[in-house]
Amino acid sequence: MSKSDHQRLLIIDFGSQVTQLIARRLRELNIYCEIHPFHDVTAGFLRDFAPRAVILSGGPASVTAQGSPRPPSDVFELGVPVLGICYGQQVMMDMLGGQVERGAGTAEFGRAYVTPSQDRIELLKGWFLETREQVWMSHGDHVSKIAPGFEVYGTSPHAPYAITADLSRNFFAVQFHPEVHHTPNGRTLYENFVRLAGFTGDWTMAGYRDEAIARIREQVGDAKVICGLSGGVDSSVAAVLIHEAIGEQLTCVFVDHGLLRQNEADEVVTMFRDHYNMPLIHADESDLFLGELDGVSDPETKRKIIGRLFIDVFQKHANEVGGAAFLAQGTLYPDVIESVSVSGGPSVTIKSHHNVGGLPEKMGLKLVEPLRDLFKDEVRALGRELGLPESFIGRHPFPGPGLAIRCPGEITREKLEILRRADAVYIDQIRKHGLYDEIWQAFVAILPVRTVGVMGDGRTYDFACALRAVTSVDGMTADYYPFSHEFLGETATRIINEVPGINRVTYDITSKPPGTIEWE
Ligand code: XMP
User: In the structure, which protein residues have their CB atom closer than 6 angstroms to any atom of ligand 1?
Assistant: First the structure.
């Protein structure tokens, strides 16, 4: 079955920060959906896509402004259910004959409570079991007159048209955001909406795996493919999937830049070469990387050096494969959406991320990106489908520049070795206390300061380190993990006792923002 054989739902994006969450909620219900920015959705596009239902997302614009973003009116002629959310609701009302007014005292941000009308429509089935439901509002404008054919089915103190519908056409419009966490039962609304639209939930990982394999075979034919393997979840799943599709035509290149964690290189090489029998080039280039990083302490310079060397080294080893026509990458759906975003404006560079961008053009390679339809948790599910061990699938993310960005100041082999050992003790502690899976990412950073301590009867003058552990959904925002004092005390004692070179341990309690997860 190809992707196009699935029942499809189209999400038209008007630039809301949370549009991706709509797709997440639907994917959880085994619904295949795609997000497309409003300016790409033409009448022709709609015809080709042939959605079984359409969702109009929220967005920052005002319907009352000149040239505000709109879907083509054909959306309302398709004969399929349409759900408008926030800006989507307003644009729908405006286009179908209702009215929208600018803020003026009715703007609402945050938690609100919606009370349903007597008439419980199908969209609200299983919802509002209590008399009112908590929802999340975030709007400046508001609908002042609903379009002909619509009735009101729910109100909140500031939104008299919180839930409206035209049941004869299966058009629904809500002022709040059912996709966010702060609308605790919002999932029910999506469940009802897709059921109304006749979706059967035909998007499953087992099915996806077979389709993806077929697609890779079709794309690649009998050409050779190279894949940069980092040992992270995305590149590992991409490699195993492609290997399953084309076997020995795939060669993986694992670049060891000398900035990996304890035993990491061995684990990756053993797993892919011995367990999966994949052709794998293990490029130990630590001397090169550490040599060029010698004496460098500026974070951006470190990142740029690593990024440049990585591409050079990768290219050198990829040439050994001879005649590869494709480069495999573990690009995920959020990266794809990002690159076609509604606003698309330049954003400030906080950190230069390390990736293999630029390589395909330089080497004349085409891309194979078998994960570009998937979210991170779907990639994990696919990894399980492919039999990757849980220890790999559940791994915390590890940045491309590796330990370099956990070693503020100058990088030395001595510091890296101390860091590796401290990190191993910390992760061991987290695992022993059964906390690993609750944490998005945990690591040690070695600080560029030495402090005075006393051990036994002697004075010490060693490095201080910082423990970092955060919870996060996507790495974009994060909170520090609330370890118990007992855990922190025990871990500090172990690190100081077991790791020569460290005599002081601190815990980083900065959230993101204003901090970032990594130290550099
Ligand atoms: P920050 O430090 O920006 O990190 O809050 C957010 C997430 O991204 C990871 N990270 C990277 N991943 N290449 C990567 O592949 C990079 O250059 C890079 N820098 C940061 C970081 O570990 C966290 O998960």
Answer: 351, 353-354, 397, 399-401, 441, 475, 512, 516-518
Catalytic-labelled residue, pool 139, 142, 177, 243: 177
Q: Could you tell me which of 391, 508, 489 has the C-alpha nearest to residue 446?
A: 508
The ligand 1 atom nearest the CA atom of 520: 2
Question: Using the 8-state DSSP alphabet, how is residue 472 labeled?
Answer: -
Q: How many residues does the chain have?
A: 520
Among 179, 264, 285, 385, which one carries the catalytic annotation? 179
So what's the pLDDT on residue 358?
63
Residues of the chain with pLDDT under 70: 1-4, 104-106, 338-349, 354-358
Would strands 99-101 and 250-256 be described as parallel, antiparallel, or unpaired? unpaired
Per-residue CA distances from 180 to 36, 91, 159, 295 (Å): 19, 21, 18, 46
**From CA 508, how far away is CA 519, in angstroms rounded?**
10
Global pTM exceeds 0.85: no
| Buried-state track 82-105, b at ≥16 Cβ within 10 A, e below 16 | bbbbbbbbbbbbbbbebebeeeee
- Residue 338 in tokens: 């990002």
